[in-house]
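TICKET: design request
STATUS: open
ATTACHED STRUCTURE:
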């Protein structure tokens, strides 16, 4: 699992998360439309923001769960 998190927090993983966020936003706004499309587009903001920020959200959540 650490290899996965290492990849996701590296440059390639960050670009992958940014691309996934842009794809979700584009799909939600362009293909779906309506309230469902808006929800998908808003959900796409999370991987986009986390890719730009750096850390993997799943890794952060698992670290907090281990400490609790």
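STATUS: resolved
RESOLUTION: sequence designed for all positions
ATTACHED SEQUENCE:
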């Amino acid at each position: 699992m650490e290899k996965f998190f290492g990849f996701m927090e590296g440059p390639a993983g960050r670009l992958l998360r940014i691309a996934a966020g842009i794809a979700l936003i584009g799909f939600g706004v362009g293909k779906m439309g309506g309230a469902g499309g808006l929800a998908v587009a808003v959900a796409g903001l999370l991987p986009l923001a986390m890719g730009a920020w750096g850390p993997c959200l799943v890794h952060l959540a698992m670290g907090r769960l281990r400490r609790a």
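CLOSING REMARK: The CA atoms of residues 31 and 37 lie 8 Å apart. The chain has one domain: 2-67.
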